[in-house]
Amino acid sequence: SEVDSTGGAFEQVVLSDLIPMIDETYRTHADREHRAIAGLSMGGGQSLQIGLTHLNTFSVVASFSGVREMDIETAYDGVFADPAAFDQNANLLYLHCGTVGLDARIYRSVRKLCDDLCQAGVKPVEFGEAEGFGHEWQTWRYALHDFAPRLFNRKQ
Question: Which residues are within 8 A (CB) of 1 and not within 5 positions of it... i.e. 6 or more apart?
Fold first, then answer.
């Protein structure tokens, strides 16, 4: 199944309501270079949808156990079709999942996506896995532990 190209009402809430509320309430650097989006399971899929179609808003996009099979030429409005442009616009695409249970299928999708992106020449992609863990909190704890130190590291 192909990835939907619209995030619907949730996307609008994140972009129009949530981000402005966070920037007004907290001491943030309110620019794309200091903004990431991440989620787990269905939220990971939503993070990919919102983040990859709004790289003018987010510099880092992460999904924990939230990747489906996709065609990298057309997914997310074709964001991967031009690897050089993607590399220029994204600081990091981080993907993580377990390897068993429900995550076994997700793991195959993530591996294929990472392999396809690597073959296409897309560079700012990192993949992590929780060997022997499934679609569960322990997997996502490992993901957060691996992902958090990578946030907002400037490109070399």
Answer: 68, 69
Q: How far apart are the first and last CA of the chain?
A: 36
Q: Would the pTM of this model clear 0.85, i.e. be above it?
A: yes
Bridge partners, residue 126, by sequence: 94
> Is 7 in contact with 48 (CB distance < 8 Å)?
no
> In three state form, how does the secondary structure of 63-86 look?
EECCCCCCCCCCHHHHCCCCHHHH
The rounded distance, in Å, linking the Cα atoms of 85 and 78 is 11
pLDDT in tens, 9-65: 999 999 999 999 999 999 999 999 999 999 999 999 999 999 999 999 999 999 999
